[in-house]
Amino acid sequence: MFVRKNKNKSGSLSIQIVHKIKRKNKVVKTLGIAYTKREEELLILLAHNEIERLQGVQSLFVEHDDLVVENFVGGIANDHLQIVGSELILAEIYRKIGFPSGGSRDYFKNLVLCRLVYPGSKLKTVDYLKKHLNLDISVYSVYRFLDELNDELKPLIEQVTFEYTKKILDGKLGVVFYDMTTLYFEASEEDDYRIPGFNKDGKHQQPQIMIGLLVSSHGYPIGYQIFQGNTSETQTLIPVLDAFQKKFSIEKPIIVADAALLSEKNINVLQSNNYEFILGGRIKNETEQIKQKVIELKVEEGKPKEVKSKNGRLIVSYSSSRAKKDRRNREKGLKRLEKKVKNGKLNKDHINNRGYNKYLKLEGEATVSIDYARYAADSVWDGLKGYVTNTRLSRMNVMANYAQLWQIEKAFKISKTDLRIRPIYHRLKTRIEAHICICFSAYMVYKELERLLKINGINISPEKAINEIKEIRQLNYTLPKSKQVKTKILQPTIKQQALLNMKI
User: Fold this and answer.
1) Distance of CA 117 to CAs 138, 366, 413, Å?
2) Which residue from 425, 499, 402 is spatially nearest to 90, judged by alpha carbons?
């Protein structure tokens, strides 16, 4: 028996095993058709292996096996490898939440998953689509899709997010947390939407917008609202709450927010609309009468007390660790002042109540010095923390609810770092709104991943899980004989296998 190559009209080769009987050749088996030189070599090796098997002389370890494997591995190109982790895991979470998918809305799904796996520019989005989905799409196609996202998408995303969050919390929201932040643009021009204003990141000269975010306990998102860049924080709370009430028609939750929202106007509007609230209190901004009552309380650690204020109950707690931090900060502030006074860098214009400048005083007509008596008297406030509320909750419950405010701070941190919601490079209002909607959706997927990791007993952070997910690869290959296309996930690591087995 021998191997014969027959050339076809198309230029391909048929690889056959032929048995010569007397003077006639009889085809025993056709191994397949080779379209490339590498396929030809592989089929010939398989043919020789089959001849040995037919003749009954094949050993357990065939000498050609290594060559066959080496030939197959050598034929694997980068195009044959596809990153599939995000589709196998993150896309399933996306669909479980109920976010839109199918047809043109798969664009949105892909942009959300890309925000989790490769946060950054739209060029990275194009790279993601190529590596993960084998889609060769230009960045202009992505921009066109952002332009076409209609006004129905944000309400739909918020509705789905709200319903899923409510489901997770067994239908009980109870308390919601509100905060806002600034998002700046890498652009020099302002417009009606992007306006310079106070920026928490020190980007005061760059156009920006402001975003107010509502989250539930444990940091699950509920909704958001976008404001012009020069909007004051105190003017955002009620519009967000009103929009929230109109959309979801639910019982009014208790509003928890930090001291930045503690304005007379906000409190009056909250009370007139029958909202209950827990706000961070600024004890030292209270009237002298209230401050004296607070001092007389002599609050001890773990035993909060309260006094009545014009805005409701002023609950005061004490923490020894907070007292150490307050004292340390005051000492650092004093040293900086002493250095400036010694160098003569301060004048009477610096005497004000901003920060540690309140410890300055004027001696004579032009000499600025430090009022050490006032500095020492300020120590009475070390360790004290205030909470303003109109609820009937116990003092400990008020403090416990306020303590969860870090969840919304974490939400902003995740959005700004892991999801890289900022800086924003878009100019058009529609693209800006689409970008934020994508990031909001990605944050919900992130939070659900965090929850599922805990439920499934996988003791890694969402960030590390995403790093593992985006390294799960699949091999796409074609069988040389049947030309059948096959796929195989490459052997996952222990962590990757745990993620693949995760119950979603």
Assistant:
1) 19, 60, 17
2) 499
How many CB atoms are closer than 10 A to CB 309? 18
If we measure between CA atoms, which residue out of 391, 385, 388 comes closest to residue 175? 391
Query: What is the secondary structure of 17-43 as a DSSP string?
Result: EEEEETTEEEEEEEEEEESSHHHHHHH
Residue type, 365: E
CB atoms within 10 A of CB 196: 15
Q: Tell me: the pLDDT tens digits for 185-227?
A: 444 444 444 444 444 444 444 556 677 778 887 888 888 887 7
Q: Which residues contact 224 (CB under 8 A, 6 or more apart)?
A: 158, 211, 212, 213, 214, 240, 436, 440
Burial track 202-230 (b if 16+ CB lie within 10 A, e otherwise): ebeebbbbbbbbbbbbebbbbbbbbbebe
Q: DSSP E strands: which ranges in 377-504?
A: 384-389, 473-478, 485-489
> Which position has the higher pLDDT, 425 or 230?
230
| pTM recorded for the entire structure | 0.69
The DSSP secondary-structure symbol of 251 reads: P
Q: What Å distances lie between residue 349 and 319, 363, 375, 490, CA to CA?
A: 35, 13, 19, 69
Three-state DSSP at 3 gives: strand
CB atoms closer than 10 angstroms to residue 140: 10
Q: Nearest-CA neighbor of 440 among 429, 432, 451, 428?
A: 432
